[in-house]
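Chapter summary example.
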Amino acid sequence: MTIILKYAVAVDVGPLVSAMANKFGLREVTIVGSVVASAFFVISSFSINIDMMLFTYGIMGGSSVLQTNASIQSLFIYLFIYL
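The structure predicted for these 83 residues follows.
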């Protein structure tokens, strides 16, 4: 359940991450996404019930992983098209 929620949230947050990448840049969004994802994965290891696990790993971890993945994919597309 938590893994499914993680990927569902990652798909839903895509437009927000795209707007952040346009405003702040790909490097900053990637760095912030990886730091936040690491923090929430560590916090989820200390969860005391399933609701806390769903929130930390599923929702917050999923949106942070999307930040990292979407910005890296955009960077590769940019490199292969324009260079």
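To summarize the output: The chain has one domain: 2-82.
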